[in-house]
Amino acid sequence: MTYGIVWFKRDLRLHDHLALYTAVSRGPVLCLYVVEPSLWTQADAANQHYQFLLESLRELYTALRKNGGQLHILTGEVTEVFAHIFAHQPFSAIYSHEETGNDATYQRDKALGRWCRTQQIEWHEFAQFGVVRRLQNRDDWQARWNAHNDLPCLPLPKSSAEKFIQLTTALTLPRLPPSLQELHLDPYDPPERQHGGRQNGLILLDSFLRERSYQYRGGISSPLSAPTACSRLSPYLAFGCLSLREVVHATRQKLAELPATADRQKKGLDAFISRLYWHCHFIQKLESEPEIEYRNMHRGYDGLREQEWNQAHFDALVSARTGWPLVDACVTMLRQTGWLNFRMRAMLVSVAAYPLWLDWRRVGHWLARQFLDYEPGIHWSQMQMQSGTTGTNVPRIYNPIKQAGDHDPHGHFVRRWLPVMRRVPDTWLFEPWRMPPEVQAACSVKVGVDITEPVVDLELATRVAKTRLFDLRKQAHMQPENLIILEKHGSRRKSSSTSRQPSVPEKPVSTQLELDW
Ligand SMILES: Cc1cc2nc3c(=O)[nH]c(=O)nc-3n(C[C@H](O)[C@H](O)[C@H](O)COP(=O)(O)OP(=O)(O)OC[C@H]3O[C@@H](n4cnc5c(N)ncnc54)[C@H](O)[C@@H]3O)c2cc1C
């Protein structure tokens, strides 16, 4: 008997799963997830990702059981696992979703492709986002994004139960997920992180569409309101517990149901759909140019920061001891929850890249481990954009003292995450290191002991960084590559986020994308 293997990757659901749907409609199917030890030793991997994965796999396992199937979880390097199965229980095809992952998954996919060709096994890959493989140019990209998301969501075919088959018992590979120790993972797991599984994702989607989207417009920039105003769907999209398309559909349906008077919520949902569009827009950059994970998008910036790594600055940042309360509070919250809103992420990277003058690669690996929703395509594109190495976007430099005044004027956020700040009087909230000795004595907070002094002089260090970046930026030899990058990666977005009309190709957009208010 010949059969196909559905290889689950970052698509941990049964609903709207084109690979599963196609495989089941063609014949017998074996469902497989492979825990790949080499991926868990990468610099971007963290235990919180592994725990979220296991939680999602458990739910997927149960869901498949209810539908008459079984999820087989094996451990090993993918090509070896497939070869091992093939030797004991030959199959004719693999079905999976396309993955725009890190370099390790890219190389692994290439190796598997070679193996499939030598064994004459067909490997069918399907798009799960509005990301286009082998994209020739960006001009009709928006129309393709719309086309992907306009398709109906696919249920599991009715006759699936008879199609699922089991793995032969002759196979000797371990069938339980490995322990943290076996994967050599640091055991730290943020105590307040979100938990995996489709049900948790659906609950969040429902509460967002029903109530929380009302706060989306105006609520997503402040770290105080953002945890409830934002959808919080990012890890469920990153691990594929929800399909992007089902989120787009549910949002469009909600928009259609809302009365004209619900203007604020409608605007919020429109803005939310824009973010779902940006989700794929950013992933497309890594899909089209995988090297941006490890080298500057604009090669003219090579050598700008690489040779000047300052370990003391990096240590201050990761240990929440930069001295700027909003920065340290964000790092503390991130460590506790695995999540931060867009503006605070952008601010952290900006502080790292400008006043602390740190190269984006090591900062990016650290943040990839901190973000539960780590999605390589969004992450590395954003890391480069916020560090000023794309060449095309006008660099945006966030001042953490101004950001604190704008988004946490009463200090509720910094006092929540930095308990020592509860004793600091309001007057000194933004620059506590300037407290005169008598104020320090009165509130029992000693600068240099209880509160760190800023790791650098913010104004001076930012000015120096700006000069270095802009001096390079304006040099004539930098311009030709800017145009090439713009042509390759620039958005041609024109119409409203909810429009289903194919877009008219436009000139690429060169300014920093406004993703926040
Ligand atoms: C340096 C940096 C690194 C980032 N790394 C990641 C990452 O690894 N994974 C990730 O999902 N997002 C990343 N983002 C984008 C953004 O911060 C998060 O998507 C967002 O905070 C997730 O919360 P949410 O789901 O509640 O967002 P919502 O505001 O509810 O947005 C809904 C969805 O839209 C997408 N989205 C939102 N904002 C953006 C954006 N600016 N660019 C692209 N897609 C977006 C996400 O899939 C998100 O889940 C990064 C941003 C920066 C500045």
Automatic annotation (TrEMBL):
Domain annotation Photolyase/cryptochrome alpha/beta: ranges: 2-131
SUPFAM superfamilies in the record: Cryptochrome/photolyase FAD-binding domain, Cryptochrome/photolyase, N-terminal domain
Keyword Lyase among record annotations: yes
GO BP annotations, alphabetical order: response to light stimulus
Taxonomy, superkingdom: Bacteria
Disordered: annotated span: 481-517
Residues noted as binding FAD in the record, renumbered to the chain: 216, 272
Cofactor detail note: Binds 1 FAD per subunit.
Keyword vocabulary terms for this entry: FAD, Flavoprotein, Lyase
Names of required cofactors: FAD; (6R)-5,10-methylene-5,6,7,8-tetrahydrofolate
InterPro entries: Crypto/Photolyase_FAD-like_sf, Crypto/Photolyase_N_sf, Cryptochr/Photolyase_FAD-bd, Cryptochrome/DNA_photolyase_1, DNA_photolyase_N, Rossmann-like_a/b/a_fold
MF-aspect GO terms: deoxyribodipyrimidine photo-lyase activity; DNA binding; FAD binding
Protein name: Deoxyribodipyrimidine photo-lyase family protein (Cryptochrome)
